[in-house]
Specification:
Oligomer: single chain
Largest sheet: 7 strands, mixed
Number of strands: 11
Structural class: mainly beta
Number of helices: 0
Strand content: over 45%
Radius of gyration: 13 Å
Amino acid sequence: QVQLVESGGGLVQTGGSLRLSCVGNGRSFRYYSMGWFRQAPGKEREFVAAISSSIGKTVYSDSVKDRFAISRDNAGDTVYLRMNSLHPEDTAIFYCVAADYSDNRLPLSPDEYDYWGQGAKVTVSS
């Protein structure tokens, strides 16, 4: 069974940091683009960041650029999201995603990702 499993969510104060991890199981994600979306209470799901499979190309939403950093391990099956300078507006459930884009495409639409994790809750207190 193919799964993406997130970990690392939790409660943090404004200005704090967290690192989310996502491990892909059931197949190799080495040649997949991987990324993160989030959904805040009462809001639509929004793109956060993505990283390509082979050349390390990354893309970020404007709201997290310069605060968040996405990376992946050498085997390609684990993706990380380092989140710094968190503020209450970052409170959301964060979802790990993956799609088979060996051409290093990094889509911003949730419809273009085939695999989704169950979500990791991040709460930033003021």
